[in-house]
Amino acid sequence: MKGLTRRLFLLAFPVLLLGIVFAPNPKLLLGDFVGRHVQIARNLAGIFFFFMVLTPETAHPQLAALQHVVQGMHAHTDSLDSVSALDRAIDLVDDFGWNHGFLINVGDVKGKILDSAVQQRLDNGPGELKLAVELGTFVGYGTLRLVRMLNHTGAEIITVDPDIFAYTVSSSLYEQAQVRSRITMKTNYSYNVFAELKKQGRTIDFLFVDHVKKLYLPDLKLAVASGVLAKGCVVVGDNIRSPGAPDYKKYLLEGDGSKLFSTEVHRTHVEYWRLFPDEMTVSTYLG
């Protein structure tokens, strides 16, 4: 009997230990007092692991890119004004993407297509470009390119991403570029932001779509149905081929979207990786 009890204990102990370590709320398993101390021990272990074992390069490429920007900006602190700080921050992200790691922001090559699309909207109207919205912030690189193109205007720039990590990294990048006050950050989902704009009676003049690829088409349709796209709004879609948004492309070129949008497809390559082809779409909403 004692042998059976011992074997059961040996089987149950690892299960209990795993429960203590991985349980979402150890207080439910162990009670308030012991459970709270398990939470503290977990957090201390996580902090120790992060500071003593991980480096920014191994923790996440977003952190590594931010560290690269911070170090590069510090090397030029005395000679940077707000305009040159913005250019320098953009260049440093590109330098990291090409030479030190890999990132999934739009990058410098496709970034020129984005810049050209903004200029197209500025030149051709109709009317003033008052509101630009970016779906998908990541490190904040695309936002910086929008700021650079629109800095001489009164346009509001909103970037939307529900990921708190993206918010943390990108807001730090904006500070380095000295443009944090120029950007409205929404740690939210696109459909909530569209609903908010609709309630305010505001419309989007430029939309940069660079978030979850399977959401490109639903979000574009939602924007149209909600009435938040201004006539003449230019909509830029990234990564149309790699990793791909085939339903979005088909809708714009062959489906109902072809009656609502005039679309150009730009053939290019994946950001910071010339071997892999990619495409961007630049669409004008006909209203």
UniProtKB/TrEMBL annotation:
Signal peptide range: none
InterPro entries: SAM-dependent_MTases_sf (IPR029063), SAM_O-MeTrfase (IPR002935)
GO BP of this protein: catecholamine metabolic process; methylation
Protein name, as recorded: catechol O-methyltransferase
Major enzyme class: transferase
Keywords, sorted A to Z: Catecholamine metabolism, Methyltransferase, S-adenosyl-L-methionine, Transferase
Natural source organism: Symbiodinium necroappetens
Molecular function terms, GO-annotated: catechol O-methyltransferase activity
Organism superkingdom: Eukaryota
